[in-house]
């Protein structure tokens, strides 16, 4: 946290969209597909922006976390809900930080009734791809808007992160590797690497630190971008 609220010191209050948490894709009224995201990193970033005087909207999948002080929260469940809210908010925003672990696939059909066991031992679900929210914001980004993504990887970390930076038209990507102890889902710490400015741009590696400290570094970095 910095001494001076930097965003409010600018002439106009900056408006930032932050996505956080997992999305939950229903299979039937009882079951769903989701992931291990707890939302901690995204909530810490939203809190950091708000503490610096930015106007923040947090679009969050289901988590156990309380809304950070001074942040407008929009609760969503599925990837489709998150897509709809983010696309509607994006034109009013100065930037977005896409921290949510959005499900890549969703069941093609949601059963109205609980699916019962059958005699056959196998059961399969037809999954269809979800819409890529970050890529859509990247596609519709206008001059002056800043788009930040995250990449959580287990291998080929740098190549995968740089691929996402390009493919989704991001200005900056925050990489965390599940191979690093203390990084990733659930815990209170993270070890991040920030890439900005495309394939030949800069790379900044941060030490293992609390998610709150990592959030402050990410927001510092955003503020330092031209
Ligand atoms: N993202 C998104 N919408 C999706 C999928 C991802 O907005 N449907 C965003 C995430 O919030 C993150 C970035 O895109 O900022 C990268 O997400 P990630 O899950 O690492 O990448 P994918 O593109 O889904 O690729 P893969 O799962 O194959 O690594």
The distinct bound ligands, ions and cofactors come out as: cytidine-5'-triphosphate
Order of helices and strands: HEEEHEEHEEEHEHEEEEEH
- In percent, how much strand structure appears in the residues? 25-35%
Residue runs with pLDDT of under 50 for 5 or more positions: none
Helix content: 25-40%
pLDDT averaged residue by residue: 92
Specify the structural class: alpha/beta
Counted by DSSP, the helix tally is: 6
Main sheet properties: 8 strands, mixed
Shape: globular
Terminal Cα separation, in Å? 21 Å
Strand order of the largest sheet: 5-4-1-6-9-10-12-13
If you compute it from the alpha carbons, what radius of gyration comes out, rounded to the nearest whole angstrom? 18 Å
How many β-strand stretches?
14
């Amino acid at each position: 946290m910095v001494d001076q609220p930097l965003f409010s010191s600018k002439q106009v209050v900056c408006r930032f969209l932050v996505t956080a948490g997992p999305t939950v894709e229903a299979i039937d009224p009882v079951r769903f597909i989701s992931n291990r995201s707890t939302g901690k990193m995204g909530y810490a970033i939203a809190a950091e922006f708000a503490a610096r005087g930015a106007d923040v909207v947090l679009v969050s999948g289901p988590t156990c976390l309380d809304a950070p002080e001074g942040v407008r929260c929009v609760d969503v469940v599925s990837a489709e809900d998150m897509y709809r809210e983010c696309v509607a908010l994006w034109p009013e925003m100065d930037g977005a930080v896409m921290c949510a672990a959005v499900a890549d696939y969703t069941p093609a059909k949601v059963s109205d009734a609980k699916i019962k066991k059958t005699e056959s031992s196998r059961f399969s679900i037809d999954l269809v791809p979800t819409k890529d929210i970050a890529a859509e914001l990247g596609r519709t980004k206008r001059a002056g808007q800043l788009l930040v993504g995250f990449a959580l990887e287990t291998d080929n970390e740098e190549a995968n992160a740089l691929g996402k930076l390009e493919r989704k038209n991001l200005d900056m990507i925050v990489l965390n590797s599940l191979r690093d102890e203390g990084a990733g889902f659930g815990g209170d710490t993270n070890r991040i690497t920030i890439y900005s400015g495309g394939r030949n741009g800069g790379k900044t590696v941060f030490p293992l630190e609390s998610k709150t400290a990592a959030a402050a570094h990410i927001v510092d970095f955003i503020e330092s971008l031209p």
